[in-house]
Amino acid sequence: MAGPLSHIRVLDMSRIMAGPWAGQILADLGADVIKVERAGEGDDTRRWGPPYLTASDGSKTKESGYYLSVNRGKRSIEIDISTEEGQAVVRDLARTSDIVLENFKTGTLARYGLGYDDLKVVNPALIYCSITGFGTDGPRSGEVAYDFMIQAMGGLMSVTGETDGQPGGGPQKVGIPIVDIMTGMYATIAVLAALAKRDQSGQGDYVDIAMLDVSVAMLANQAMNFLVGGQVPSRKGNRHPNIQPQDVFVTQDGHMVLAVGNDEQFARFAAVLERPEWAEDEKFATNAARVVHLETLHPMISERLLQHPLAYWVEKLGAAKVPCGPINTVPMVFEDPQVKHRQMVRDLAHPLSGTLKQVVSPMRFAQSGLSFDKAPPLLGEHTDEILSQLASQEVRR
């Protein structure tokens, strides 16, 4: 069953995480994604290890775990874009592509004659997406950025981490490159919207995605808490700023996450804890009251949860339809029966290791199958294939 984007070709000139993440999403959806890599060097993330993939003979390869996480389903071609020959190949590929993804420093590709204004001449229907740290205009448009610094600059680290004054207090980044990932998601949404518009107008478009813009957009409710309430959001550890009780609690033998989302859930929660009167108390009956009186409520909940083991509470609260759960390690996640049932980890054929485990796309379609048949490519693995197809003007998979 062909994927929903099996008719689309993507020229992925990006590297690191944000752009390649967008390219991988499009590849999962069936698009033919051609990854352009520096001749002899490849994507920077190929060297971002250890760990590196182990070959079938037990030796270590040059395929880093980081690179393997964001390049599934693509074809790799080595091109030196500083040469006229390399630039000509890129233009030829753009002529038969629907989307270009790039995350070079602002203005770099234009110097090589490969900017949007250059490529739209050879393909007016082209959708060209530039992903940068700060956007293509403004006082910082020419600067380079990485996820970590944008998590700081965009305000995310000011609301992530334990409360100041508590053990472990202070700014904290998210444990994954969340701004890179969300930038890739926004880029994907944008190019798909441009594709939908092109179906009506026949014209391509230029998409400008900035990591800092994405980070600001991601502030979501924290931003509105400030814009509406005037109070500066602060780090609260695991406590939710607007909904309570939502926090990490200690049980008799471990930690659990409690995520009560409304007053009805709180009433059921209180009943399971054998404190039904809490739901009638004016200090706790409504969410707004619980947020105001959290310093009183939190110790009372903690005391009750210490009376039984984690498994007891997960079972009892789950039966009462109160959202809660254990804090799984990454290995525990992959052993979760629901994760296994959803087949979130698949084995893909790989030329060096035989097979390669991959965490696949969470998207599911009733009428279209997603593509999980190509492992992340070796550097230049498809160069000859793609150039041969270019010569015959086919450029097909």
UniProtKB/TrEMBL annotation:
Record-linked InterPro entries: CoA-transferase_III_domain, CoA-Trfase_fam_III, CoA-Trfase_III_dom3_sf, CoA-Trfase_III_dom_1_sf
Keywords assigned: Transferase
Keyword Phosphoprotein: no
Entry keyword Cell cycle: no
Pfam families xref list: CoA_transf_3
GO molecular function: CoA-transferase activity
Protein name, as recorded: Crotonobetainyl-CoA:carnitine CoA-transferase CaiB
The species this protein was found in: Pelagibacterium luteolum
